[in-house]
Amino acid sequence: MTEFNKNPDREWIKQRLIGASVCVLFVFAVLFFRLIYLQIIKGEEYRLLSEKNAVRLKSIKPSRGLVFDRNKKLMVDNRPSFNLKIVREDSGDVEETVEKVAKLIQVPFQELMDSITRAGKGAFYKSVILKNDISREQLAIVEAHKFDLPGVHIDIEPTRHYMHTKTATHILGYIGQINRKELKSGNYPNVRSGDLIGRYGIEKSFEKYLRGKRGGRQIEVDANGRTIKILKTIDPVAGLDLNLTLDLDLQKTAQKLLENKEGAIVAIDPDNGDILVMASSPSFDQNDFIGGISSKKWKALMTDPGKPMINKAIQAEYPPASTYKIITSFAALEEKHIDVNTTTYCPGFFKYGNRAYRCWKKQGHGELSIIDALAQSCDVFYYQAGVKTGVDALAQYARGSGLGKKTGIMLENERKGLIPTSIWKKKRYNESWQGGETLSVAIGQSYNLVTPLQMAVLMAAVGNGGTLYRPRIVKTIEDSHGKIIKKIEPQITGGLPASKETLHIVRTALLKVVQGKRGTARGIRLKNVEIAGKTGTAQVFSIKKDEKIKTEDLKYSLRDHAWFVSYAPAQNPVIAISVMIEHGEHGSSTAAPIAGALIKQYTQDLSTEETLTE
Amino acid sequence: MFDRRLIENFDWGFVALILLIGSMGLVILYSALTAGQDAGVVHVLFKKQMIWMGTGFTIMMITVMIDFRDLDKLNLFIYVLCVGLLISVIFFGEIGGGSRRWLLLGFVRIQPSELMKIALIISLSSVYSTSVSQTGLNFRKLINPVILCTIPFVLIVKQPDLGTGLLLLLIAGSITLFVKVERKVFFTLAGVCFAAVPLVWFALKEYQKLRILTFLNPDRDPLGAGYHIIQSKIAIGSGMLTGKGFLKGTQSALSFLPEQHTDFIASVLAEEWGLVGSSILLILYFFLLLWGLNIAYNCRNMFGSILAFGVTIMIFWQIFINIGMVMGLMPVVGVPLPLVSYGGSSVITNMVGFGILLNISMRKFSSK
Fold first, then answer.
1. A586 vs A346, A374, A538, A552, A565, CA distance in Å?
2. Which of A305, A587, B214, B292 is surrounded by the fewest CB atoms within 10 Å?
3. Measured on CA atoms in the order B290, B295, B298, B299, is the torsion positive or negative?
């Protein structure tokens, strides 16, 4: 290596370093002059602005998307709400001001202070909510005393309005203030403390579409926090509207039919899986949640034995009872243990091991084949079919028919029910499967559990020739100009594990349930429409063999649950319905008439619509 | 192993300058923390920063002990090690603020992209020290440096941390221009950069585009970056000549400023200490940079000269970008202010850099 010291390269590098130093000097001169400009030339102006803290940001809430039914009837709207707020920085003595406010609007002082504390330390110059959604009277009083209340102001902001009280409550859901944990979770970008977010139903599952985008204003305020000048505005973007698959009129009828009862109704369009009706009873009033629900009301909702906060259509699991005979029929026919002509004699009981299992009809059904056995719901026939098929094969057909797993509806907390197998029992109870239990499974009275929605999906598939659809609740999502942003297409999840012949046999039997001379649901026949269906009576409490208790004498909570699942018209169905009435005792007397009424209304509506369009 | 001449040549003045700026930084940081946080948090954060400073100082002294000429020999090893760390960030990195930047090594969380800056400077200095010529570098001689830059750049941008990635390019570009390129190379590179602008634009994330657009026109985002810049300017301007006094800043106390203990800390200084205080810091920084360039000037070893220039220019860009940003001369990017902003990674990297400068300064007479 040459001696760098005497190297001409070294002199050259030195020259370049001097050049670099000049560059640095130049840059620092620029920074320095910028400082002088800001602090000396503009200093006075900025000092003034900083003393007043005059430039503020004010956010403008977006209005949430609207919700319509399938016929574009408005279900959820927005209305203006008067929200009382305070900017602590402008308020002087905050406690004194809040005390005045509390007296004026007759709200406990502590409640208002709590709402300030919740906003946290810092951000004294920001608006903090004192009370959301005050009444017009309260508004008038506050406005009248405006000059006594420095820092207090009222913002008119859009808030939710559920137009039809207690209608589709569990589907629409409600909104509530975001809490700290949710804010921290990072799942809600662009949401700030004090904002309302969907907490239940589609308000929650479609939150990101409904929410919209916050806007804001840069404003200059005076010493009391009143706006002097709007500097800049960014308009909020309204949330997207949802078009549901629900039929509002039918939903209302369903809700009325459920009044004073506990249970659920689901109606589906068999051609695409659209949910036409989903009702759960008892219900609650979503409008109670808007300004923040009072703890008294919340407690009442949570302790109500009828569990009004639960959407029984998807969250409650019931024994399927005799409606499960549809599955047992699939399994026995497909596994060729029986065929359409196989007959069984029903003397009113079935001997298995050293026990006699009873048929619901004590005197027995006599000799019958599968079509009559299903139509008359003969237990003995299905005990036999079940024994031949075995529990694990039954489970396989149940799963194939969509039971024991979630349907995939876009609502939260859907339950998947339960389809027992011998392996399941071993795992769950560490006991091996008993042959007698298979008998109970075959008639749907054992460990099996299903949701009303699962049964509706199953009936829709039986009705449409075997296609299982994922139930759809939202059809399209569009912006406020009506432009479709997202379309949710019908989605096929599978096919029933039943051949054409098997399906034909089952459908013939289901038709006989209503239209046949000895059908269990004869009472709901309609003039113009043929209905196919199946009744079910799920035991809540088993009456011992020798006891003679009239069910009417039983305590309400021990009475049987009533099922009716159906589709209509039988040949080319437009609607599939599942009705579950808790403690309704008999499917034929309490559940079936509800389905009948809905089918009547829906098919009439359709035919009048057709004549209108023709 | 330790030559007595080395201790005689130890650059006490430079260390004093670093300590002076560091102390000033701690005072400003204390005020910025007090304004924005609860008392308990202030205590914890301040203590943490003190520990970082102490650790950084120790690392600086360790760096001094290794002869910088060994760095020349080890340059490829250091480079590969850092690239290895960057790659392992992709697989094992911790996620924070939407990107994967940190690596947990035992108790310490390190940010490999920070170390990469130093490693790249060493490697480039090593390559250029043999290829430098007064006529400037031609295309062939630029192949290796370009490869050296591209690998870490891509890895860092993938994290994604575009700010650090671009800082890396700025540093590498400055060093390259410093050792001079041929005229035609210069214009070709300038042309390529110009042509690349639209390509880069498409590769940027939506929020990154927005930031650049906001810089060009602050009115675009009056509720976000635009608002922060306005508040920062109000804070600085309202400091006027002598400032509002220690802990008396109102803009910061009312938390008008975002990230006031990291990216916007210079606004707190300007508000509370006025033009006087800010000028003092600017002058100290200016001395620091001149000192660094002077070390390069006095070094008799080409590698050492370029290395000293590279480290100095790294410090320079951080200062310029940060202060430029808070005064509204630069887009809002998260580059910390050396020795002042809160944050461990930045303290350690800069201290290593200062260690290298001291190292070169001490051994300036060694030419081999």
1. 21, 16, 9, 11, 13
2. A305
3. negative
Are A79 and A197 members of one domain?
Answer: yes
- Express each pLDDT in A177-232 by its tens digit: 787 777 766 677 777 767 788 889 999 999 989 998 888 777 777 666 667 777 77
Q: Does A612 touch chain B (CB under 8 A)?
A: no
What beta strand segments (E) does B99-219 contain? 99-105, 108-110
Residue B38, chain A, CB below 8 Å: the answer is yes
Amino acid, res. A235: D
A23, part of any domain: no
> What residues make up the domain containing A191?
56-244
Q: Closest CB to B275: pick one of A36, A44, A89.
A: A36
Dihedral (CA of A383, A388, A393, A397) sign: negative
Does residue A328 share a domain with residue A209?
Answer: no
Is the CB of residue A389 less than 8 Å from the CB of residue A359? no
- When divided into structural domains, chain A yields a total of 2
Answer yes or no: is A387 within a domain: yes
Low-confidence ranges of chain B (pLDDT < 70): 1-3, 35-39, 95-99, 106-107, 211, 215, 218-225, 250-259, 365-368
Q: What angle do CA B58, B62, B67 make, to 5 degrees?
A: 155
Q: How many domains does chain B have?
A: 1
Residues of chain B contacting A35 with CB distance shorter than 8 Å: 236, 270, 275, 278-279, 282, 327
Judge whether B230 is closer than 8 Å to chain A, CB to CB. yes
d(CA A109, CA B343): 43
- What separation in angstroms does the CA of A344 have from each of A203, A347, A373, A439, A501? 52, 10, 9, 15, 20
Burial of residue B247 (number of CB atoms within 10 Å: 0-12, 13-18, 19+): middle
Q: Specify if B367 maps to a domain.
A: no
